[in-house]
DNA sequence: TTTAGCACTCTTCCTTCCTGAGTGCTAAAG
DNA sequence: CTTTAGCACTCAGGAAGGAAGAGTGCTAAA
């Protein structure tokens, strides 16, 4: 028990050990069954006997790359094993033409409202990978109002259009029990634009509202009606929403045959806020995909689960993240490839301006 | 085997039989365990022996109101039994003040965009009942465009605001690689409003667009850009969206300990389109809640599942539905009460105009 | 360092057996 | 005719006991 072998992760593994580790991981990913020395004879094509492989397996186990469910079972990768696999052994998966085509088509989304697109992207990823997926827009810095417009509809209703400095536009139809005149509305618009533009959510204080209301004179409580809508918009943007999709895919995988486990994970995934907060979004800076294996996750509920993340640019300096959740036995290569392809697609989608009128657009 | 007893559902049950049936249903709803004659001695307070109850149980079973999982188990209600219970025996559940308060608060929703409200309502119902829930807006009749407005933002971007005759307002920010002048935009607006107002989705033909584009002259492809957005809006409204929430609650119930079963139901629920189509929405006319027990459901996937529906008014003649899905062993009384309360709340929410400016609003 | 051989360990699966709950039937009592 | 007590019978579910088989670790030889 007290052996003093170096279990240091700095110790380089021999090529043969790596080959074996890789074979174990890939076989286990495919079959979800522990892998034994005999099976490895074929999988990793080494010209050695099963006994030799057994020795190597014992070493790998001792160094923490593999685990044994029980004495007479084969080996399965430990989180540390997966980590090494992901860092060094995994072959970058190239998507087939089929797959890229499929994704590209799906990315031609209708209704380009930010939140709908993000939601759709999440669903798409889930369907693509057969794992639960989530998508969220990075919560922006403080957002301010850029402008108000009021559009008269008829005697007693008008549309408020609010635009933020992040170029998000929201509108609302407001119906009133009293009549309104066009000049009144004009006046109101000017007043709103002079008093509230450039303000963040926190700066829209009740006092400010009261002052403005006073200036409005005859327009009673209209100011507060419009401004409170603007506040809802700002609030909505600061608490960036999380969209989850395909949670039922959890049940596809044998590691969640135990209903208790499945339930725990599923209900965690539906607490969208908690999920968003537990993601190490800042750490995503350099590379645009990140893989979190089992205990590397912050959230307790994800400790025996892996998460693959990819970030995309929404434009205007904002970032968003899409991700996939699954058992640690996950096809990292495939998932990472798909995710990153979708993320790139989203970035492009958000980056582009409308098609130039007149000239037909060029496909790249 | 060949007994000729009338199994006719027209046969009235004796009071005692009803009392027993009710006790069976309610006990089974609570415990999910088959109910035996001895247990019933206490549950239904009848001054008879267990042997008498056994006789009655045998009758009820023969008449199809109860079932026996196996010879030596107690009885559980059949769908027919639940139906009778729901129709005649169930006591209308009154919500506690606590509960109504909770619901009322949750109904004070922010961001009153139609789809967000509906989504939120679904989530709320799911949380309230601990069953998966869904919500949808009844797909409207043909929707047409009521008006267009274009708001200039700066040299090369503007906001399109489209309003439909169902008073839905949608907007989109359009950025162009070329410059635009205010007069150009004015012209465009008039053109759009004269050419496309009052048209349904089908009537927005490519020819119509071409004619208008020609009239626009110097404004190149702007017309088609704006109109295709309008088309997306109309399309979005016709394919009314379905929102599901809380599917993980399925796993809470012992009838879905079998992962296979749970998975089937869950993946059916996530096919939101199929779900919406299988609901007998027209049949919901008269009463505003409807209960579908097991095989009464149209969809094969819901045959051993119950669905409780409640409809609400969106205004403008449109209706929406919220519903809950669960095992046939469902607390119908409670669920129906909650659902109908929420539906009423939604109707009120949509019906109301904005608060009258000046006067403080009255609570009812 | 590699390999063959072999004893050993455990899980998994099957069979068997037992227990207890709940029934249906019969015959007596109201 | 209805109700009740008594009793034999059925059947699911759990415990116990093997038997089979996979895979290991160790030893000793190559």
Describe this structure as you would to a colleague:
The structure is a homodimer of 364-residue chains. Chain A is of the alpha+beta class. Chain A folds into three domains: 15-89, Arc Repressor Mutant, subunit A (Orthogonal Bundle); 97-140 and 241-350, GAF domain (Beta-Lactamase); 145-236, Heat-inducible transcription repressor hrca homolog, domain 3 (Enolase-like, domain 1). In chain A, 43% of the residues lie in helices and 17% in strands. The first copy, chain A, contains twelve helices and ten strands. In chain A, strand 1 and strand 2 form a beta hairpin. In chain A, helix 2 (37-43) crosses helix 3. The longest helix of chain A is centred in the last third of the chain and has 20 residues, at 332-351. The radius of gyration of chain A is 27 Å and the shape is elongated. Chains A and B meet through strand 4, strand 5, strand 6, helix 9 and helix 10 of A and strand 4, strand 5, strand 6, helix 9 and helix 10 of B. Chain A binds a DNA duplex (30 and 30 nucleotides) through residues 34, 36-38, 48-52, 54-55, 57-58, 68-74.
């Amino acid at each position: 028990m007290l052996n003093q072998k170096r279990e240091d992760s700095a110790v380089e593994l021999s090529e043969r050990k790596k080959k074996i580790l890789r074979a174990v991981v890939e076989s286990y990913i495919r079959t979800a069954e522990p892998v034994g020395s005999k099976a490895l004879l074929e999988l990793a094509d080494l010209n050695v006997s099963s006994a030799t492989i057994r020795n190597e397996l014992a070493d790998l186990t001792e160094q923490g790359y593999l685990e044994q469910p029980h004495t007479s079972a084969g080996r399965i990768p430990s989180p540390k094993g997966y980590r090494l696999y992901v860092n060094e052994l995994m072959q970058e998966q190239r998507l087939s033409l089929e797959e890229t085509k499929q994704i590209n088509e799906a990315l031609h989304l209708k209704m380009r409202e930010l939140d709908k697109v993000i939601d759709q992207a999440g669903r798409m990823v889930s369907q693509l990978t057969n794992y639960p997926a989530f998508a969220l827009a990075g919560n922006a810095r403080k957002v301010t109002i850029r402008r108000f417009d009021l559009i008269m509809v008829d005697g007693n209703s008008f549309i408020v259009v609010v635009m933020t400095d992040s170029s998000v536009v929201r509108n609302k139809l407001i119906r009133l029990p009293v009549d309104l005149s066009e000049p009144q509305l004009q006046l109101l618009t000017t007043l709103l634009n002079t008093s509230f533009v450039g303000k963040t959510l926190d700066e829209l204080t009740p006092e400010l509202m009261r002052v403005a209301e006073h200036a409005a004179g005859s327009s009673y409580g209209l100011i507060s009606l419009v401004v409170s809508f603007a506040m809802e918009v700002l609030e909505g943007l600061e608490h960036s929403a999380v969209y989850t999709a395909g949670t039922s895919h959890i049940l596809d995988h044998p590691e969640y045959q135990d209903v208790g486990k499945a339930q725990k994970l599923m209900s965690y995934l539906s607490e969208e806020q908690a999920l968003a907060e537990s993601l190490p979004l800042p750490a995503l800076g350099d590379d645009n995909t990140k893989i979190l294996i089992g205990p590397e996750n912050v959230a307790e509920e994800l400790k025996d689960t892996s998460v693959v993340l990819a970030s995309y640019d929404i434009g205007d300096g904002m970032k968003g993240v899409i991700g996939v959740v699954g058992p640690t036995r996950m096809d990292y290569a495939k998932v990472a490839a798909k995710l990153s392809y979708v993320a790139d697609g989203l970035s492009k989608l958000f980056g582009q301006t409308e098609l130039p009128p007149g000239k037909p657009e060029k496909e790249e």
